[in-house]
């Protein structure tokens, strides 16, 4: 098997233009300029700004969905377009670390939902990632999304720059803070602005509907939505 298929991250970046001190020489390459924040400001300002929520829970329409819907409702009130994608029932394969995405603007593998999902992430102005807690972290499906999106954006720099990010976690008992950290680390490493709330964006519940009884959590999710809306308003 050729070395080309096993290039390191550094080699992949060098191949597409180099991560040098002239750094602005990092090339977006084949990425569509209209899809990258800052490259087409006039078009960006004319269109309606959008918030995308990605639900990593393995259960559709459960507690995580409820919390994300609370956040999106606040954004909807402010006139922003919203979309809620639930990953339950879908497959997202693990990253193969092939770096074939370098200069292409998306993953080269189209045998699952990732390419379509990544396209939605790039076009969104705000991304809210939510997950129920599995083994004290995000679900394996959401983790695969995060890892593949990280590699694609690393080899096509700037695709998430200056977007707004919000993290949501739901737990029966423990592990929610680890899930929040995993999500926020992704946002911070992609040059995104991370929105917070009056407390951690965590809800507690086991059976469907139980998280909505967590009054503090619902208040935090509403405030998170309001803070994301405020940030979007400043980025127009």
Brief synopsis:
Residues 49-204 form the NADPH-dependent FMN reductase-like domain. The chain is of the alpha/beta class. Helix content is 38%, strand content 14%.
Describe the structure.
It contains seven helices and six strands, in the order H-H-E-H-E-H-E-H-E-H-E-E-H. It has helices at residues 9-15, 41-46, 63-77, 114-123, 140-155, 176-189, 215-235; strands spanning 50-55, 81-86, 126-132, 164-171, 193-194, 202-204. Helix 5 links the parallel strand 3 (126-132) and strand 4 (164-171). Residues 18-39 have low confidence and may be disordered. This is Flavodoxin family protein. Residues 49-204 form the NADPH-dependent FMN reductase-like domain. Pfam families: FMN_red.
Secondary structure: number of strands: 6
Helix share, percent:
25-40%
Order of helices and strands: HHEHEHEHEHEEH
Q: Average pLDDT value?
A: 87
Sheet-strand content, in percent, reads 5-15%
Uncertain spans, ≥5 residues at pLDDT below 50? 18-39
- Largest β sheet strand count, sense and barrel closure: 6 strands, parallel
Oligomer: single chain
In one word, what is the shape? globular
The computed structural class is alpha/beta
Radius of gyration of CA atoms, rounded to a whole number: 18 Å
Number of helices: 7
- Alpha-carbon distance between the two ends: 48 Å
Labels describing this entry:
236 residues, alpha/beta, six-stranded parallel sheet, 38% helix, globular
Task: Give the topology.
Elements: H1 9-15, H2 41-46, E1 50-55, H3 63-77, E2 81-86, H4 114-123, E3 126-132, H5 140-155, E4 164-171, H6 176-189, E5 193-194, E6 202-204, H7 215-235
């Amino acid at each position: 098997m050729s070395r080309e298929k096993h290039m390191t991250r550094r080699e992949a970046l060098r191949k597409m233009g180099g991560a040098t001190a002239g750094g602005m020489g990092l090339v977006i390459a084949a990425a569509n300029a209209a899809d990258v924040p800052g490259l087409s400001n006039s078009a960006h300002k004319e269109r309606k700004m959008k918030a995308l929520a990605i639900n990593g829970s393995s259960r559709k329409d459960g507690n995580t969905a409820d919390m994300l819907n609370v956040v999106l409702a606040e954004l909807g009130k402010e006139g922003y377009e919203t979309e809620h994608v639930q990953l339950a029932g879908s497959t997202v394969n693990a990253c193969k670390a092939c770096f074939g995405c370098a200069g292409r603007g998306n993953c080269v593998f189209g045998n699952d939902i990732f390419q379509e999902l990544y396209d939605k992430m790039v076009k969104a102005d705000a991304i809210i990632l939510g997950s129920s807690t599995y083994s004290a972290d995000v679900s394996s499906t959401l983790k695969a999304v995060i890892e593949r999106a990280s590699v694609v954006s690393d080899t096509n720099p700037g695709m998430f720059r200056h977007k707004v990010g919000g993290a949501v976690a739901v737990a029966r008992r423990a592990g929610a803070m680890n899930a929040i950290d995993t999500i926020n680390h992704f946002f911070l490493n992609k040059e995104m602005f991370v929105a917070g709330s009056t407390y951690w964006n965590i809800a507690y519940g086991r059976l469907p509907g139980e998280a909505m009884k967590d009054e503090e959590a619902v208040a935090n999710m509403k405030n998170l939505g309001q803070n994301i809306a405020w940030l979007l308003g400043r980025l127009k």
